[in-house]
Amino acid sequence: MDRLSQLHIPTLRNDPADAEAPSHRLLVRGGYVRQVGAGLFSFLPLGWRVHQKVVQIIREEMNAIGAQEMLAPLLAPAELWQESGRYDIPEVFGLKDRHGRDFVLSMTHEETMTFHARELGSYRQLPQLWYHFQVKGRDEVRPRAGLLRVREFVMKDSYSFDRDEAGLEASYWKHAGAYRKMFERCGLRFYECEGDVGLMGGEVAHEYLAPCPAGENEIALCENGDYAANVEAAKSVPSAPGFPERLDAPQEVATPDIRTIEEVSEFLSIDPRATAKAMPVVGPDGQLVLGLLRGDHRLHELKAAALLGGEFRPAHPEEIEQAFGASGGSLGPVGVKLRVIADEALRTGQFVSGANRDGFHLLGVEAGRDYECEFADIREVMDGDSCIHCGGRITVEPAIEIGNIFKLGTRYSDPLHAVYLDESGKEQAIVMGCYGIGPGRVVAAAIEQNHDGNKILWPRSLAPYDVEIVALQGAGENLLAIAEEIGAELSDAGLEVLLDDREARPGEKFADADLIGAPLRITVGKKTLEDGAVDLRLLASGEDRRVPAAEAAAQAAELLA
RNA sequence: CGGGGCGUGGCGCAGCCUGGUAGCGCGCCUGCUUUGGGAGCAGGAAGUCCCCGGUUCGAAUCCGGGCGCCCCGACCA
Predict the structure, then answer these.
(1) Residue A344 lies in a domain
(2) A393 within 8 A of A382, measured Cβ to Cβ
(3) Distances (CA, A) of A256 to A37, A263, A280
(4) What CATH number should be reported for the domain holding residue A351?
(5) Which residue's C-alpha is at the least distance from the C1' of B25?
(6) A141 CA → B59 C1’, Å
(7) Is the Cβ atom of A436 within 7 Å of strand B at any atom?
(8) Are residues A188 and A46 in the same domain?
(9) A127: helix, coil or strand?
(10) Same domain, yes or no, for A53 and A128?
(11) Concatenated DSSP letters for A266-335?
């Protein structure tokens, strides 16, 4: 049993000025964390208790799939990262020692773990599954939202070493299973989505996304629960436009001073979904390309970049004028001598597009008949689309990535030469996977998903304490002794108990209890003690149950069971 | 890196435009009263006004430069 009078839990009466996201606000107000610099946080004792609960859940599930816990150093010699080719990633924190030797603060530990995997010489020693909880350093472009995006954080990262793809497949899906269990145990609402391979490099990846308003990813969800994907990779069926009457050939109409899709659709009384917008861009090869999207859709930059073979930029007004003979608001695909990439949504139907003549648009423009193009998926999934599996309605929600799993293949074992000898004595590259989770993000996501403004409604598994006993001092008789007795009983029953034994006013104690968020609160005060009773309250429901003091511990245990 | 905002006791802020005594609320310390949702009275401690330079008799305030932090757009656990 911990006594609040002796702990360092610096709760704040006001919201800190620099915190906006609910998790950030509540973590600072509740005395869980303090910011040291941009993206740099200390976990104070209360916050560390919660963090360690997450860590322990992860540890148990990792051990359950046969993973071995170890610890690799945070610093790594630069050469190792030069060998893997990651040394030049801008997010890598580099530093020198006193002799001028270069090091990096590892942002993940593929290099170091692969270094150790070089000691695996034989197929007899495979597979292996190693993990550690270690600090990662990242020179983030922009830290934000408290714990959601920081420059230094603890990560559980594990690495699998297999002799072939089949082995990797098994290791990979073992992790997927373990991850689902962990996040369920942490009380999170989450989705396993196919993801982008990103910075780590590799083949296949899934990411675990927890919906929350402060999240910085977007997740597309089917209302029937059979589809969830990061918007970066999501596919969907667009909603159907209401087309006007079919025309045998495009028909030019004057649209004076009409430039945007909204203006066009309003001026012509036409469904914006029955319009096409032209987006001239300059690809990595310097060539002008015309991207064509349905009026209500947004260009998906990653998809487009992949198609164009790299970064692209919008064309400048002079380039547009030269190529189209018209300016931005009146462009269309008809008659242009450029590579035209049209989104799949434009494959069938007749659309309104710019006429390549300022102040005019064309009605009834049809792909194939009126212009030539290649079709591709270059649009972003949006609210109101339909699920590709069941046709259900798709919604797009913000979410935070709390974990991911990657099939690395030989991305690291090749350059770092981590090989083994197979049965025939032939040298083979070890096939690897890597798997990460940020406990700090799990903590933040749990709050984002479970709070009511002033209360943190911790899932039982993450709450820093199971029970908080609020002793309302007041008259100062043997009230504290009774509170301690109840606490001792609960402790003996295996519960984690916090006793607020401070000399403070009731309102202050209740407010702090809301922030500390123990699922069960027991109030011991003069008012009820006159009848020999105390109040039990489940924080989430807010209802008090008055019970005789002697039965408090038993009833509490029952309520929490 | 671009755009916007902020920097004054532990926390939240005013003062700055129009230079001259550093202020308010909360918190903290002492005493008395109070005690079921952030109390009352009395007394008290605590601030290089982000930093450097300039203007001035005099700078929190005006000018120049720098730094830090937050928020909005391209990356990730």
Answers:
(1) yes
(2) no
(3) 54, 10, 22
(4) 3.90.960.10
(5) A14
(6) 37
(7) yes
(8) yes
(9) coil
(10) yes
(11) HHTT--GGGBEEEEEEE-TTS-EEEEEEETT--B-HHHHHHHHTS--EEPPHHHHHHHHSS-GGG--STT
Q: Nearest 5 degrees, angle CA A401-CA A407-CA A411?
A: 115
Whether the CB-CB separation of A209 and A190 falls below 8 Å is answered with yes
> Does a structural domain hold residue A427?
yes
- State the nucleotide closest to A524 in CA–C1' terms: B36
Does nucleic acid strand B have an atom less than 7 angstroms from the CB of A232? no
Q: Is A11's CB less than 7 Å from nucleic acid strand B?
A: yes
Distance CA A212, CA A399 (A): 5
Q: How distant is C1' of B56 from CA of A80, in Å?
A: 60
Nucleotide nearest to A523 (CA to C1'): B36
pLDDT tens-digit profile of A439-473? Answer: 999 999 999 999 888 889 999 999 999 999 999 87
Q: What is the pLDDT of residue A233?
A: 74
Q: How confident is the model at residue A56 (pLDDT cuts 50, 70, 90)?
A: very high
A487 Cβ nearer than 7 Å to chain B strand: no
A537 touches A545 (CB < 8 A): yes
* Distance measured from the CA of protein residue A28 to the C1' of nucleotide B38, in angstroms: 17
- Kindly report, residue by residue over A266-276, the tens digit of the pLDDT: 776 777 777 88
Element (H, E) at A54: helix A45-64
**How many domains does chain A fold into?**
3
Could you tell me which residues are beta bridge partners of residue A435?
A158, A405
Nucleotide nearest A35, from its CA to each C1':
B69
- Residues 6 or more apart whose Cβ sits within 8 Å of residue A283: A289, A308, A309, A310, A312
What is this model's ipTM?
Answer: 0.85
- With bands split at pLDDT 50, 70 and 90, how would you rate the model's confidence at A403? very high
What is the distance in angstroms measured between the alpha-carbon CA of A148 and the sugar C1' of B35? 40
CA A89 to C1' B34, whole Å: 63
Is the C-beta atom of A528 closer than 7 angstroms to strand B? yes
Output the domain CATH number for residue A194.
3.30.930.10
pLDDT at A523 over 60: yes
Site of tokens 């899906």:
A173
Asked if A280 and A357 sit in the same domain, the reply is yes
Same domain, A123 and A36: yes
Output the pLDDT for position A200.
Answer: 46
Q: Are A200 and A84 in contact (CB under 8 A)?
A: no
pLDDT band for position A337 (cuts 50, 70, 90): confident
Extract the tokens encoding A540.
């989430």
Residues spanned by the domain of A270: 251-376
* Residue whose CA is minimally distant from B1 C1': A141
Distance between CA atoms of residues A34 and A132, nearest Å:
25
Going by their DSSP bridges, the two strands A360-365 and A374-376 should be labelled as unpaired
Domain assignment present for A101:
no
Tell me the CA–C1' distance in angstroms for A150 and B69.
14
**Please, what is the average pLDDT of chain A?**
86
